[in-house]
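This week, think about what follows.
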Amino acid sequence: MKILYIVTAFPRNEQDVITPWLIETIKRLQNKGHSVTIFTSSYKGLEQREIFGIPVFRFRYFFSRWETLTHDEAVPERLKRGLFFKLLIIPYILFGCINSVYFACKYDFDIIHVHWPFPHIVFGFFMKMFTGKPLICTFYLAEIILLRKTFHFLTPFFKALLSFADITTVISSFTKHQLNQLLSVKNATIIPFGCTIPEVRTEPRTKTNEILFVGRLVERKGIEYLIKAFSKVISKYNSYTLRIVGDGPIKNSLLSLTKSLGLKSKVIFAGFVSKHELIESYKKAAAFVLPAIVDSKGDTEGLGVVLIEAINYGVPVIASNVGGIPDIVKDKITGILVPEKDSNALSEAMMNLLENKELRQKLTKNATEHIQKYFSWSTVVNKLDVLYSSFIINHPR
């Protein structure tokens, strides 16, 4: 069937690193015989073209040099940069609506699937009005926080638009709870997304000396608490190093913290790495840590897909008990959960894991089974396939 994905941003070329899980989802849906087209915003005048064999329709909304609301960083982060980006939302919505009407009249599709419904349900609404096709909305978390924190005055209007959706899905139990609290959506279906590296499981190398973190270097990842915890770990396990894979706006402050704690030779800032290098990092990691927090803006992890990646490579995991993380990490069953912003608890968890081979083996075994059952790509794509097929049965062409 023909499915239209409405998204905030989509890779500008095949080397672009944004939304890799979305690309993987689409590829696997294509393998099941579905056809997916993307409706998204332009970036600096970028026009329509295929990416990874996926047709991408990009709507223009401003002069080329200033079409920068999306892509390089998350929209909520952009909006913090000043009044200009807040004002840019107006032409973004206006021209998005105009183009959605044009797109709905010109192209044929069976299902409209809106990702990050705030504000993109507006586009989906117009498409549904002109085509009568089923409308699905998928929430992640960031858009719920953006609506609650910055655009709360739009909540009644947005809730009215959401009533036109035929079904609502979320990526985690936490996202479902947040959505219900804000918009009283109680019956959302949980459909997570899988990891974007090959689902190959290897036995953890018990004599590796690296503790691994992977993610953007932003406040909500809680990396400063990991670095502080690691400084306590090496007082007992001096042969270990901490590898931080990723980049972001707080890198310099993290470098300063590392230097002040005398850890310059013990903490490796690897930056962005290739998929092959990422896989190698997982393969040799003794443990994986995601010390996420609820940041100063109320944002946190919607799911924590890097935990799925680590588990797929047989790495025992430690994470903070926030956001959607508990869907993946069941304390003392599939990993170790610690309170957020607690470096002492984090260091104790790391040392406990490094000291206890039996615990590591138990956690990785349970975690692998849990991921296979709930987060494997076959599970995720089958859920989507069933969802789409049910609409076609109920809404024949």
